[in-house]
């Protein structure tokens, strides 16, 4: 038997091509791999819930201001009064916002955000009632100033991502990119929804719906306790923590954010004036939506890149790209073609989100974990201050320069100023990624 088996010819086993067929079968799924970073961060339990709630709470940020303008101007017949009331609220937010964020860092998001939002909601409802029943003008200022306690919902969401991925720079970069795209989406949809509600239902509808969404979203967000970052422990006799404004490297970033906010504020005013001057006033919002859409798409794509080993250098590159692309609307407006301006605004928006994402990452790296909400709120405050200054500068340029087309030099100048500040204050030592 052994001799018989030994005499049998030995043949190689047949080759099975099954593995190749399997790889070919799953090739379409491989195309989705570029979006794996986003799938990975949302695979963490609780992230989808707090993100959805935060988006609901963040949408009114793009609604409440324009709703107040439409409501006050429609009932009192004065855009000057409406603008003064909203400017007062913006100034009050710049003062109260960092203090609210400091309390959130000290006592936790759920303990502070809910009562702060409730007070802000009461301010919005008070404004609505004062407008509806014809109360004196000073009551409008007082009511809208009470909304300054609105917490920085985007900052609280970024703080949760920073806590969940404190040891994963790549995941933090992807999360910050998503948050920036979410900001663009809210500021894109918010004004459209507010205008629709105020013009089709009744003038107070935008403020009422915005206040309801804000309170509901914050309540749902605060209920997600398992993803809430813990409060930094404080021992007895612990010295008071100094303000993030005194931390090295943060004030130059805030100055750059101030210049970036001036880009947004002036671009909005000048674009609306350009559309009005060319007889296409109804499409002014659509032109601004193209800029926000370009920024949001660029933010999502930027999140697929690896985080920079030297974020300070990448921030310099991003601000340089933003300064270069902001020249496109100025050149397109000189041609007198709204279509060319639309393309230019879409392209110009593609540099703002990467700049904001990298800048927010630098704010996180230069701010202690126990002061993260305060640091990011200071960045948002700088943006708001820049938006206010940019709006005023853009309005002045529209009236005193040679037409709205030339006024596009204001956002271009603000972008150049942001680049200059970044160049002059660039840090030589690399930042922690």
TrEMBL record:
Keywords for the protein's UniProt record, in alphabetical order: Membrane, Transmembrane, Transmembrane helix
PANTHER family associated with the record: MAJOR FACILITATOR SUPERFAMILY (MFS) PROFILE DOMAIN-CONTAINING PROTEIN (PTHR23542:SF1), PTHR23542
Name recorded for this polypeptide: Putative drug resistance protein
InterPro entries, alphabetized: MFS (IPR011701), MFS_trans_sf (IPR036259)
Organism: Streptomyces lydicamycinicus
Membrane-traversing stretches: 55-73, 79-100, 112-135, 205-223, 252-274, 286-303, 315-333, 339-363, 375-394, 406-426
Gene3D superfamilies linked: MFS general substrate transporter like domains
GO MF assignments: transmembrane transporter activity
């Amino acid at each position: 038997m052994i001799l018989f088996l030994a005499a049998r010819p030995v043949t190689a086993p047949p080759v099975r091509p099954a593995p190749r067929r399997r790889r070919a079968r799953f090739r379409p799924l491989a195309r989705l791999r570029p979006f794996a970073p986003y799938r990975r961060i949302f695979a963490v339990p609780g992230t989808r819930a707090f993100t959805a709630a935060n988006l609901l709470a963040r949408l009114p940020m793009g609604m409440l201001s324009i709703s107040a303008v439409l409501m006050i101007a429609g009932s009192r017949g004065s855009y000057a009064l409406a603008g003064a009331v909203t400017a007062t609220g913006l100034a009050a937010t710049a003062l109260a916002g960092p203090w609210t964020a400091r309390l959130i860092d000290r006592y936790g998001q759920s303990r502070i955000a809910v009562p702060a939002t409730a007070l802000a909601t009461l301010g919005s409802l008070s404004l609505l009632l004062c407008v509806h029943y014809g109360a004196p003008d000073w009551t409008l200022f007082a009511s809208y100033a009470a909304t300054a306690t609105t917490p920085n919902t985007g900052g609280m969401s970024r703080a949760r991502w920073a806590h969940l991925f404190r040891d994963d720079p790549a995941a933090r970069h992807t999360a910050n990119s998503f948050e920036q795209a979410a900001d663009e989406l809210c500021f894109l949809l918010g004004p459209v929804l507010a205008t629709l509600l105020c013009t089709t239902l009744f003038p107070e509808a935008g403020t009422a719906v915005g206040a309801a969404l804000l309170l509901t979203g914050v309540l749902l967000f605060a209920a997600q306790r398992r993803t809430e970052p813990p409060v930094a422990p404080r021992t007895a006799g612990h010295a008071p923590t100094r303000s993030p404004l005194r931390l090295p490297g943060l004030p130059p970033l805030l100055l750059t954010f101030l210049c970036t906010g001036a880009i947004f504020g002036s671009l909005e005013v000048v674009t609306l004036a350009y559309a009005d001057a060319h007889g296409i006033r109804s499409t002014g919002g659509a032109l601004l939506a193209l800029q926000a859409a370009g920024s949001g798409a660029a933010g999502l794509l930027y999140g697929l890149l690896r985080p920079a080993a030297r974020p300070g250098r990448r921030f310099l590159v991003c601000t340089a790209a933003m300064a270069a692309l902001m020249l496109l609307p100025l050149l397109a407006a000189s041609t007198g073609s709204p279509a060319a301006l639309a393309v230019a605004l879409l392209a110009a928006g593609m540099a703002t989100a990467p700049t904001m994402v990298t800048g927010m990452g630098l704010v996180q790296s230069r701010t202690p974990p126990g002061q993260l909400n305060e640091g990011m709120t200071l960045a948002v405050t700088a943006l708001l201050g820049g938006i206010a200054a940019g709006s005023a500068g853009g309005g002045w340029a529209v009236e005193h320069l040679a037409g709205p087309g030339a006024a596009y030099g204001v956002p271009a100048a603000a972008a150049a100023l942001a680049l200059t500040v970044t160049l002059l204050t660039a840090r030589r030592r690399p930042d922690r990624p």
